[in-house]
Amino acid sequence: MIIQLSKNISSTAKSNLLNTLNDLQIKSNEVKTQFQDYIIGIPKTDFDIRNIGNMEGITDIHRVSDAYKLVSKKWKTNRTIIDLGDNVTIGGKDLAIMAGPCSIENEEQIENTVQHLLKNNIKIMRGGVYKPRSSPYAFRGLGMDGLKLFYKHCSENGIKVITEVMQVSQVEEMVDYVDIFQVGARNSQNFNLLDILGKVDNPVLIKRGMSGTIEELLASAEYVFSNGNEKILLCERGIRTYENAYRNTLDLNAIPILKAKSHLPVIVDPSHGIGLREHVATMALAGVVAGADGVIVEVHEQPEKAFSDGQQTLYYEQAEDLYRKARSLNSALK
Amino acid sequence: MIIQLSKNISSTAKSNLLNTLNDLQIKSNEVKTQFQDYIIGIPKTDFDIRNIGNMEGITDIHRVSDAYKLVSKKWKTNRTIIDLGDNVTIGGKDLAIMAGPCSIENEEQIENTVQHLLKNNIKIMRGGVYKPRSSPYAFRGLGMDGLKLFYKHCSENGIKVITEVMQVSQVEEMVDYVDIFQVGARNSQNFNLLDILGKVDNPVLIKRGMSGTIEELLASAEYVFSNGNEKILLCERGIRTYENAYRNTLDLNAIPILKAKSHLPVIVDPSHGIGLREHVATMALAGVVAGADGVIVEVHEQPEKAFSDGQQTLYYEQAEDLYRKARSLNSALK
Amino acid sequence: MIIQLSKNISSTAKSNLLNTLNDLQIKSNEVKTQFQDYIIGIPKTDFDIRNIGNMEGITDIHRVSDAYKLVSKKWKTNRTIIDLGDNVTIGGKDLAIMAGPCSIENEEQIENTVQHLLKNNIKIMRGGVYKPRSSPYAFRGLGMDGLKLFYKHCSENGIKVITEVMQVSQVEEMVDYVDIFQVGARNSQNFNLLDILGKVDNPVLIKRGMSGTIEELLASAEYVFSNGNEKILLCERGIRTYENAYRNTLDLNAIPILKAKSHLPVIVDPSHGIGLREHVATMALAGVVAGADGVIVEVHEQPEKAFSDGQQTLYYEQAEDLYRKARSLNSALK
Amino acid sequence: MIIQLSKNISSTAKSNLLNTLNDLQIKSNEVKTQFQDYIIGIPKTDFDIRNIGNMEGITDIHRVSDAYKLVSKKWKTNRTIIDLGDNVTIGGKDLAIMAGPCSIENEEQIENTVQHLLKNNIKIMRGGVYKPRSSPYAFRGLGMDGLKLFYKHCSENGIKVITEVMQVSQVEEMVDYVDIFQVGARNSQNFNLLDILGKVDNPVLIKRGMSGTIEELLASAEYVFSNGNEKILLCERGIRTYENAYRNTLDLNAIPILKAKSHLPVIVDPSHGIGLREHVATMALAGVVAGADGVIVEVHEQPEKAFSDGQQTLYYEQAEDLYRKARSLNSALK
User: Fold this and answer.
1) Nearest CA of chain C to the CA of D112: how many Å?
2) Could you give the ipTM of this predicted complex?
3) What is the rounded (10 degree) CA torsion for A236, A237, A242, A243?
4) Same domain flag for C10 and C103
5) B70: in domain
């Protein structure tokens, strides 16, 4: 049950409400986000909602049968639009395109990519500075030095930065240089990281786990929301199956399902999905038709020289063809 | 290695060829289809292709490194177009739409569906008369009586029939009442059935196995081709994964991959894929964008009364909206 | 609901029963096996069992909530013991060991294997004469000629034969040369084949499908039983997962679960499971501890020269060590 | 390539070595553990090992073709034995048993469990104080207060404590109250956590990820080892598959494979594996036969009242029966 509180609820009214919930054997979780205050009530047994419905200080009240509550479409039927400032939004009529290299490599590469994005009117640049790598001996990213350079060139050009955060302690140092925090597939259920990302104001893109269920992705989003941050993006990036004709099984089924279950925007990542350059654009377009609000895609001036993920990274020319087609498909659909 | 033989190869030339192959320790498999004669050579060791290349009676010769040979795009770069007669083709510029109920139920239902198809200019009707069911106590289809009725109404109206064949012994009795034989997911590696379907002239649509790999689907197609039938359709219908938010994980990645590996047309089955009525059309359209040459979809006048698969079957109105959008997307793409 | 009929039920009593079931909207399926007569009632709605319980000609009546009925432990709590004659049984106190090559190759190999089995007091020999192969160009077995030789040498030495049947039309020609029919993983849901195997008296070993669920395996067994054959063995042989450090994920969890759900004996196939010679014996022993009633294992005098599956086939010496340990573990447990 | 350095290598000799490696285009990673110093060399191209082999200060040198190096059996063929002090070891002749509740709930429960362990001569108690839960509204453990109580009662009774650590910042506060750090399945690729656990002296048990490969588990262990901690336990706890007849597919195949690939001890967790109380003991025993060096199992005085995981938790009596059988099987095998 979600109880939306009025902005000016008195402390007496709030105490009364919490006491009543307690009497009804409903466990309450207070949630205060950048936009609103809520109480999430988890009832132990059945109860009569009329006992609460008319209490002072309540704006609205919704029963939500899903395991996740605040991210459910059952109480919030309007789709969430994430506002990044400077007229950059995600979740509205326009398709959000996020493009850039797998890893930030050096200043020249950043500048080069920024020019590519500007030319194509792309407003969000992706690029990793902390890289989760299976082997401890592999390149693990440029870290904060890379991020500062990355942010500098982007912000000077009106481009927003999305980059992966891997652990709690990085959040504070990164927060001023990041427009969207990305939580990677391996951290999709890193609950401490999700908790802390609920305490910042930056939007958070959560990737579905390597073999994460749709329910689990929504539960992870609930962690962020219930800690205070309503700005959440869900990302389908492929799941692990027995098939090895491609990198991961990009699960486009997840897109209409997520949009039916949640009010949050959904992003598709075809690069980590199918993972083969020649098919990335095809799957991106299929993702747009499946209902994605945005596409996140790896591009590089010279993919074959990229520090990581070269085989799934688009050449600029391929990417430009994709941007054009994706936007045109999106317009035709909306 | 695929050796294409000239139509009028002399028996002496052929013997010479087979002897030479034998001398080179190449196992030969003679293949005679409705269109052409081939020898598939499986070499035990490396050999010098010049020893064969100039022999009499050979039209062309191709090394194919894939495990499958005749269905590979490595030797036949033109895409295969299946001609069903009466100007109905699959694999060309137009999107092939196959629609109809899960099960054929009675004559009224057939007539009703035929009218729906005629109205929408759909040329191929699907409908099961032999149904694979997990439980022996479930409805297993109307059998030959149903098929005859089904075929009668379709052929009178210029509509082609696609229906599932479950076993070798059914092929002979069904062959005159079927335009396309469908091999279901559970029979995708029923090699005896594939062998026999290689001996008829009807096109064969092979569904990917429940957890079939793309390689296995192509190997199954190779069974049909190498037994003499070049008219093959590959069908993606969803695979089994850990996710249970929907019926099967419709694997749209398989579509661009299959089209890159094989010259055969690829059909998408969103009904058995995502398996939820409200999302079937979305996934069908995504499949078209992924490159499908056709869509096979379940429709019923009253899905809630269907004998089987009701929850994934479209209402006529939904289906009509899908046909329109699918055709328009297909035109835009081609 | 399973209604066990008395042997001498009068035709009037039976009609009365069927009519009553019909009146109660219970769909009846008559089942006549080599041992007993049953009616399986599938009710559409709830009903009062007292309306049936006291009718004439009924021995016993059980409600079974599982989707499968006759193979369920809910009505038959005693474990089924399969009697192969000559004091060879499966499902009792002794561990059943079935050993032999993947493929029957020639007479010498058969004789050699028979000597190995006799020396080790093994009473059942496995060996394929019809081989399901992904590629149409691979060796597909010696067929009936091989089977006749196989059976001759075994029967002369008191050894029972288990071999795979791939299609309906093979059953009749094979039936006199086979002691146990094996249904392979790819045919685990070949319902026509299961139907026909329900009409013979030979025991049938059904392998779990490549990605078959435990429920599906039991439903497949129900096909055989409900067609008239109570002599069924269930076989765990590994499932398909994302892991490729071994051939298949031998799912030992399935053994205690199958034994809790069904009264049928369970066999473990570690050769096709883990698929690596050095680990086959370990997994076989773990399978015995998990509760398997028998082990089916590939052995060959010279595995490296075997026509198929060499890398998962044991040397005689390894196999002998396994037989000894498996029997001793089994005795210790029972 | 693993280069073991002699304890008293001179700084000149080390510089020479590093320079030589650099000249050979071999990337070096210096590793200093509680036991030894190493250099891990990752060569870019082929090189002649004789250029390094005779240099000063080197004890031994091994080429390791696996992606993981220090945890590989290719260079260290003796099995690792973890010494917890007070004569408690893991990885030797005796089976290590770790038992206790899913969650630490209160002091009484700790005392009660300790008595149960003492009675059964169990030297290691498991119990969660930080619980990863899919829902933010679920019980998340007693935290440090619980851990201190847990450790107090255990250490007073000569019992070692194993408990899950969820994030980097917890390591420091937990380190004095923990004998073995456990990394849960969801954190199996939390590389920052693994890094920091490489810097403590406590043994670390790493669970295989939810859909983790065996290679990934070993790579995660490599993180810990290469950061300086050689005391690592690998734990198989079930993987995610399509089957839902039980909680997870406990993959016993992983045990012989892990023991063949690595020198580290392997623990089996049947509670999270099959996840059904009535089958936990069976799978534990099968795991012992598969080669596990230890078993970690959930027990509770009253499982039905446990705060979490009750349905997979053993009653004391069941657990005692398991301890006895597991030890007797282990003795029989070794």
Assistant:
1) 31
2) 0.95
3) 110
4) no
5) no
